[in-house]
Amino acid sequence: MAKDIDEKILDAARKVVSREKISGTRMRMIAKEANMSQSNLHYYFPTKNDLMIAILDKIQEEFLEDRKNYINLEDKTIEENVSGFFEQKKNEILHNKEIDCLQFDYWVQGTVNEEVREKFQNTFNLWRNNINRVLNKSEVNESKRTMIPFIMISLMIGASMQYLIDEGKFDLEEYFDIVKKIIFD
Residues in domain HTH tetR-type (predicted)? Predict the structure, then answer.
């Protein structure tokens, strides 16, 4: 039962934060969206920060679970798996814009909130480690293999940022096709 209530609260909070951004979100707004009293909300999440961290954890969990649909170290080639990271990001940009935008809001919060910063650092570390697991099966030299995850993430986040602020200005498919050529050349 508590898990269902947590899910209800997290869903409501994501809607409110997507609409109002983190800085504009108030616990009363989330309670209203979740159709519960504010005191009941505080029972499950005593502070706004606790709730924001729970949302960030849930988003990370969803991304990692979704990544399994794109990456398969056993059955796919290195190129297919690297392309899988780009496919996942492209899908997020096109079909999950509010969550992609929310990530930028969390990044900003991470510049002033150490707990959010650490969570975000962990997110990037997990992402880079996933990419490294794919690249470790390649014959790319070690210094290049070390930098490729940083470059790939920068290119994916750059695509998100540019596309979401100026939708339609460039073709995502073409963008990621060129990125793949850069990575594999």
Answer: 3-63
The fold of 57-184 is Tetracycline Repressor; domain 2 (1.10.357)
Give per-residue burial for 6-15: e unless 16+ CB within 10 Å, then b: eeebbebbbe
pTM comes to: 0.89
**30, burial (CB in 10 Å: exposed 0-12, middle 13-18, buried 19+):** buried
Reported as a single tens digit per residue, the pLDDT across 36-94 is 999 999 999 999 999 999 999 999 999 999 999 999 999 999 999 999 999 999 999 99
